[in-house]
Design goal:
The chain has 728 residues and is of the alpha/beta class. 28% of the residues lie in helices and 19% in strands. It contains 21 helices and 24 strands. The strands form six sheets. Strands 9-14-13-12-10-11 form a six-stranded mixed sheet, sandwiched between helices. A five-stranded parallel sheet has the order 1-2-3-5-8. Helix 3 runs antiparallel to helix 11 and helix 11 packs across helix 16 (464-473). The protein is globular. 52% of the residues are buried.
Length: 728
């Protein structure tokens, strides 16, 4: 750094163009950045637009996070990450801008296809695995969008107004887990404000939490165009503005006139130099094995689809049955969403071509237009094709125009012409299998009775068509599980009355009760619960045991047995539950999961580690995590509402008790391990026992200092002595 001038140091805190950092002589080279949560979007240098949205170099398009997350398979995510990194090195990319791990607060978020889950534990584990895979080959990963970026409406200005407990328990843990476990080289700040302060210049977020608490030692980059004030952002902990705005002189001037300490600038430059040392220039390569990478994409797509329903075991399609494949989406697949993550695939499989190659005599009919315009002739042809078949495989889903970065959806229903077609096809008496293509949740409640089976295909990347054929024909058993609840109606969603806000603010009024935390706590009926997914076999759970291995730490084990007739995978889910008369926290929360594959009749002992953090809640008054003493329940099952085994345990807590003051209530004094003893010593052990239940219920809510007004001898001097006794 001693070789750099002030102007050169300032220049390093912004890019040289849209996709490159700044080079300075022979001191530091320019680094190449590329979008790429589910595949590289390396801009074609001949592209006419600065962002390269219209043209990028072909690369393998893997399932977006909505699909990959549904695999519940960290090892698969690690493989996908390493495969992306191999292509990054071949294309000269130093840092891949992904994964995105924002929470799915509402099914309406237009960018939900880029995010993993409504649950922070699942998002954190899957995101960390993807980061591990990318960085295993010397390519940097950039976790985004930090933080509370849960909508596209007014995303560059909106203030997400959310209390700290909700931040700590829902919207920050995925980032924390990835930082602590996978050490990403970069973190990207979000566009939005958090409680009135832009993420790009939020010191609490970028420095106090990210660096000082979690130990992040990498570089913080802005989302493209997210910086409002260069000097304030740098001082808050933002190291690199992208793309450049030509305002580097503001940084140098601020140092010269004393508004910005030079050591702040030096820290940012040092982080860029560290990043450059972590991603050595990739040697020239001739490319990668496109066929092998396509097979990885196919493997990932197979693991991502979720079998929601399979009445009468209509799936897999039995040999010899006459099949009609219906729906334009079978021939023209939707395999990713639109926006900055859009990948130009190396090839593209369609489900129709894959099914036609495997099924003699299968017929196809488009059934509808992708632009949503009604076409009676296409509908008639599809109904006729179904009438001549034993099984109709009907592909339904959302059009391209419905889901993209930059705007949110307004509803969760399928297009009306598609559901009308479904009803007419079902009216022929044929078995109907619906295959869905969508990046965000769609409602199934208005039409699922017309289908014998529903396979949620999400957006599955370039190999999704052949992967769906593998599942429909039974070459592989479905193994995906829902990472978000499917509600009956949009009105049932906990954020419904608050999303997307207005007047510059969106209030997170539902607090910590996001997704299944809301539905399960209030026992709200849903179409399909979090964690749900069927396969072509069945599993039994037995022998749940917990062994204490340390202070507030247990080893939890359960046996899972394949009780069916074929190999398949099961996702074993661990929840921690709290039974409270008046809920102060979600009824239960996911705290671990494991994906296992079992042959028929085989069993496996599955083990989890449960820690104090899994029992803790964020206490604003303490300014930290808190574990209360008492009973809790370990639940193990196949979804949040399919719990197979339960075991009650108890924790002594973490030994912390809140400080007592004159304004602490009588109830707080009585519940305090020292305060209750001090009160009993001062007034006699049985004095409070004379209170009737009704009077005690009233008295427990009164601060101790206020009792002086009721003439029962608690003068200010007495209260002061009680407080001093507790402090002692």
């Amino acid at each position: 750094m001693k070789d750099l001038t002030l102007a050169e140091k300032a220049s390093l805190t912004s890019g040289s163009d849209t996709w490159h950092t700044t080079a300075v002589r022979d001191v530091v080279r320019a680094l190449t950045l590329s979008d790429g949560p589910h595949g590289l979007r390396r801009q074609d240098e001949s592209s006419g637009d600065a962002l390269g949205l219209t043209r990028s170099v072909p690369a393998t398009c893997f399932p977006p996070a909505v699909g990959l997350g549904s695999s519940w398979d960290p090892e698969l995510a690690r493989l996908v990450g390493a495969t992306i990194a191999r292509e990054a090195r071949a294309q000269g990319v130093d840092v891949v801008l992904g994964p995105g791990v924002n929470i799915k607060r509402s099914p309406l978020c237009g960018r939900n296809f880029e995010y993993f889950s409504e649950d922070p534990r699942l998002a954190g584990v899957m995101g960390a695995a993807l980061v591990d895979g990318i960085q295993s080959l010397g390519v940097g990963a950039c976790v985004k969008h930090y933080a509370v970026n849960n909508q596209e409406t007014d995303r560059m200005r909106i203030s997400a107004d959310v209390d700290e407990r909700t931040l700590r328990e829902i919207y920050l843990p995925a980032f924390e887990h990835i930082v602590r476990e996978a050490a990403p080289y970069m973190v990207m700040c979000a566009y939005n404000k958090i409680n009135g302060v832009y993420a790009s210049q939020n010191r609490w977020l970028l420095t106090e939490v990210l660096r000082e608490e979690w130990g992040f030692d990498g570089l913080v980059v802005s989302d493209w165009g997210a910086v409002a004030d260069r000097v304030a952002a740098l001082e808050a902990g933002l190291d690199l503005e992208m793309p450049p705005t030509g305002t580097d002189a503001e940084i140098a001037d601020a140092v010269r006139d004393g508004r910005l300490p030079e050591e702040v600038l030096d820290r940012a430059v040092g982080r860029l130099l560290r990043l450059a040392s972590r991603v050595p220039a990739a040697p020239a390569t001739t490319g990668w094995d496109a066929d092998a990478h396509h097979e990885v994409a196919r493997q990932a797509a197979r693991a991502s689809a979720v079998l929601l329903k399979n009445d009468g075991d209509v799936l897999p399609i039995a040999p010899g049955r006459k099949v009609a494949v219906l729906g334009e989406l079978a021939r023209t697949p939707r395999y990713q969403g639109h926006g900055s993550s859009h990948v130009v695939p190396t090839r593209l499989d369609s489900a129709w071509e894959s099914l036609a190659a495997a099924l003699d005599g299968a017929v196809f009919a488009a059934g509808y237009r992708l632009d949503g315009q009604a076409d009676p002739e296409l509908e008639r042809e599809a109904v006729e094709a179904a009438a001549g078949a034993d099984v109709a495989v009907l592909f339904l889903g959302l059009p391209d125009s419905a889901e993209s970065e930059g705007f949110d959806r307004t509803g969760i229903d399928l297009p009306g012409d598609q559901t009308t077609l479904l009803r007419r096809v079902a009216g022929t008496g044929v078995d109907v299998v619906v295959v869905l293509s969508n990046g965000g949740v769609v409602s199934v409640s208005g039409w699922q009775d017309a289908a014998s089976a529903i396979l949620e295909g999400w957006l599955l990347g370039q190999a999704g068509g052949s992967a769906l054929a593998d599942l429909l024909l039974g070459t592989h058993s479905p193994s995906g599980r829902l990472t978000e609840t499917i509600p009956h109606r949009l009105a049932d969603v906990p954020s419904h009355l608050h999303f997307p806000g207005g007047d510059g603010h969106v209030v997170y009024g539902e607090g910590r009760y996001v997704g299944y935390r809301h539905y399960d706590t209030l026992d709200v009926d849903v179409a399909y619960p979090f964690g749900h997914g069927l396969s072509y076999t069945t599993f039994a759970y037995s022998g749940l045991e917990a062994r204490e291995t340390g202070a507030n730490e247990w080893q939890v084990e359960v046996t899972v047995t394949n009780t069916g007739s074929r190999f398949a995978h099961e996702v074993v889910q661990l929840y921690v539950a709290f039974d409270e008369e008046r809920p102060t926290r979600p009824r239960h929360e996911l705290r671990g999961f494991a994906k296992i594959g079992l042959e028929p009749g085989a069993s496996e002992r599955v083990s989890f580690t449960l820690t104090g953090r899994d029992l803790a809640w964020w206490s604003a008054s303490r300014g930290g995590w808190r574990i209360d003493p008492g009973a809790f329940t370990v639940e193990v099952g196949a979804s949040s509402r399919d719990i197979r085994q339960r075991l009650e345990l108890s924790t002594p807590g973490d030994g912390w008790a809140p400080p007592l003051t004159a304004m602490s209530t009588l109830g707080e004094w009585l519940d305090h391990p020292v305060g209750s003893r001090v009160l009993k010593e001062a007034f006699g052990g049985s004095a409070l026992d004379r209170f009737s239940p009704a009077l005690m219920g009233l008295a427990r809510g009164i601060p101790l200092a206020k009792f002086r007004t009721f003439g029962i001898g608690l003068s200010p001097e007495v209260v002061d002595r009680l407080v001093a006794a507790v402090d002692g």
